[in-house]
């Protein structure tokens, strides 16, 4: 039996594009899950593999049933190929989950068709009642978390959102998480080198990207005027709590220049307004601190300004502890697995207080 990854056949998590009967997993941690009775399942998956070198190709992981670790990790190194997802010796009920490990800008993952060896496709797994949206940058994506040291350059092979505080927090809270995260991104600037004389805004900053289902995939699949890109329908996923972890890359531009830091603060207030407009009932937790704290004061000010100007008691601030050398580093000085787990513990505890979970 062959079928497409429609929401009637599979459980979809994360913001995903569905174009020409193909489900595109773009953002880190986005996934599809399906249940069937049989011995084998496979999928025809398309990717823009020829566009990237080995270090930036798309990568997925396949989980079977409720396993905590993936049964396999796959590099999408062909424009189109059939991948075996599960194969057993006896016919039984199986749940298969495909999770995007590499982040949105690197390597498309288009699930064109899924095939099982019987006609016994079961109802898709249910969604969790608790829902989180997490807006962030490379830390949220799990950038380089599996690299051996800070001296290792970025490679999608060492990127793993399941080892980031984001999905770890969701696991601790038994919640479904939707990640809107992109390495190098920020409120007023992408990451820039120390000598930069201009901020980087050409790729699209998070306040713009957040409006779309998947800005990166749209720019490759339906190139042209970004106004034609699919806008995100905020009724498709209604989180009880939204975590915003943005500012690390802005720090590279702001440095200790107060005018720039004030700009970050003011634009952060505007972004909170857009988040609130589209998520009127959600609690919002704004946090920063793991890698760089130079705009931490301005972030706290932004939360305070927004709360007072809008009489909004559902917006909160959390200062995260800076990472420590003794706890190790991932690629390019990113958080190690230990730091990510510690951060998840802190964030989950804060969410429990806010949500009474």
Q: Can you describe this structure in just a few lines?
A:
This protein is α+β, with helices and mostly antiparallel strands and 357 residues long. It is built from eight helices and 15 strands.
Number of helices: 8
Helix and strand string, N-terminal first? EEEEEEEEEEEHHEHHEHHEHEH
- Mean of all residue-level pLDDT scores: 97
Q: What portion of the residues fall into strands of 2 or more residues?
A: 25-35%
Biggest sheet layout: 10 strands, antiparallel
| Percent in helix | 10-25%
Structural class by helix and strand composition: alpha+beta
Low-confidence stretches: none
Compute the CA-based radius of gyration: 20 Å
Describe the protein.
Helix 2 (about 165-170) crosses helix 8 (about 335-355), helix 5 runs antiparallel to helix 6 and helix 6 packs across helix 7. The strands form two sheets. Strands 1, 2, 3, 4, 5, 6, 7, 8, 9 and 10 form a ten-stranded antiparallel β-sheet that branches. This protein has a five-stranded parallel β-sheet with strand order 12-11-13-14-15, sandwiched between helices. The relative contact order is 0.14. Strand 6 (about 60-65) and strand 7 form a beta hairpin. It is an alpha+beta fold and about 350 residues long. The longest helix is centred in the C-terminal third of the chain and has 21 residues, at about 260-280. It has helices at about 140, 165-170, 205-210, 215-220, 250-255, 260-280, 295-310, 335-355, and strands spanning about 1-5, 10-15, 15-20, 20-25, 30-45, 60-65, 70-75, 80-100, 110-115, 120, 130-135, 175-180, 240-245, 285-290, 315-320.
